[in-house]
Amino acid sequence: MFKTYLTVPLLLLLSYIIATLAGAELTKRGRLKPTLRRLPAIDAIEEAVNRSTEMGRPVHYTVGFGGGRGVNEPGLIPGLGILQNVATLCARNNIPLIHTCGFGELMPIADEAIREGAVLSGNPEWYRPEYNRFISQEVYSYALGVVNIIENEKPGASFLIGNVWGEALIITEPAAAQGIMQVSGCRTFSAMPFLIASCDYVLILSEMYNVSAYYTKDEMLVGSYLGTDTAQLITVILLILGFVLALSGQDLFKILTKW
Amino acid sequence: MSGIIKSREIVLGLTLLCAIIMAVNYYVSVQVISTTASTIVSWGVIISAFSVILGAIITIRFHLGRIQKKRGDWLWSIWLIISIIVVYTIGITFTATSYIYQWIIINVLSGLSETVYSLVGLFAITAAYRSFRIRNTDAGILFAVATIVIIGQNIPIGEMISPVIPAFAKWILDYPNVAANTAVVMAELVVATAYSIRLLIGRERGA
């Protein structure tokens, strides 16, 4: 049976979904013409790959270890999406990509992302199975393995985007010491200061989800952000309402869950 | 046949089906749906367990290739393969709870892990040194706030100078910090919902 106390969260979720799809559809039909503002961290992804190409060096990418939660960590999904974007750029420029894995179940998924990136670039022959490397299921062994690859294979650019926790500094600091251009991103607040301190560019939370739309300029993808903005507006209105009600001694959360 | 099985539509369809079952299970309480959701989660656990073996096979294959071609640090590759074989053999022969296996975990793996973890302290200092150089207004604000929090919360010197400093540091952490964090997380969750929808309908593609 339906859990009645979840009525409001379900309605909110449905409103977010409708707003996203409506924004995408209206843009596709040409009724709306949204544009994405410049995001330096996303621009830096292409810049980093191009830098590696000019230097004749490979590109390193890892989605982090994610506190050992494996593929259950939500930050992994945009991390893999950006891996596909980076693979597309590497295949277009015909330079090697080294993807390092911290947990085995990620291997086939990452492999598919790299292969798909190669197909999208129009250069499927670029793909090699050795681009995807398993390091270790133990966090510090994994971090040291990544550092070893960074120091020995000397990539021109290194990406650490996805599930980043305690391994952040162990990976990024040796890379920074070597002058490697680093772009990182995560949704873990405890790791973010480390990334900001040691990387050149950092994708902060929601920026990680925008990469495909930013590069492809696909009408549907860009349009969906209008929906996202509307959904965020709904959230802000609820926040203001909650704030006003709190001043009068009432709890909006309790009111909504009892509704 | 393999073309049909590998086709993108089937993969997307299965992903969408699993996502709908998991989402419906969150909102309704129906025996059939909750059993199906539990089964999907169990499949995930089984796949994870097998992935460890997959990881070991891929690692051994990669390092054997390196040894064969004598490429890079191939001598370390020999050491790595010997370590994998020894630990796997002990684990399978004597089980993971045996004294010898636990000895390896406690005296070798834990020791090495702690050694690596201790590097974080050193790296935090070098990273902080680079970040705290005041190059622009943002870096100046970062430096000022970080200094107040460090002397107010982490070292006793703040309290010795003035009792106001620890209170101010706590106020920074409890109010501006929490407010900014909450706003960013809420924005991210909305964007993540939109991203999931795009992913499930197969529109999220590469650059």
Index terms:
heterodimer, A: 259 residues, Rossmann fold, 2 domains, six-stranded parallel sheet, 10 helices, B: 207 residues, mainly alpha, extended
Secondary structure layout:
The complex is a heterodimer of chains A (259) and B (207).
Chain A: H1 7-28, H2 40-55, E1 59-62, H3 76-93, E2 97-101, H4 106-121, E3 132-134, H5 139-153, E4 157-162, H6 168-177, E5 181-186, H7 192-198, E6 201-204, H8 211-216, H9 219-247, H10 252-258
Parallel strand pairs in A: 1-2, 1-4, 2-3, 4-5, 5-6
Chain B: H1 2-6, H2 8-27, H3 31-69, H4 74-94, H5 99-131, H6 137-154, H7 157-161, H8 164-200
Helix pairs in contact in B: 2-3, 3-4, 4-5, 6-8
Q: Number of domains in the coordinates of chain A?
A: 2
User: Tally the helices of chain B: what do you get?
Assistant: 8
Radius of gyration of chain A: 21 Å
Instruction: Report the oligomer.
Output: heterodimer
As residue ranges, the low-confidence spans of chain B are none
**Shape summary of chain A:** globular
Strand content of chain A: 5-15%
By helix and strand content of chain A, what is the structural category?
alpha/beta
For the largest interface, the chains and their residue counts are:
A-B, 81 and 56 residues
Order of helices and strands of chain A: HHEHEHEHEHEHEHHH
Termini of chain B, distance in Å? 30 Å
**Sheet with the most strands: spatial strand order of chain A:** 3-2-1-4-5-6
The strand count of chain A comes to: 6
Distance between the termini of chain A: 17 Å
How would you sum up the major sheet of chain A?
6 strands, parallel
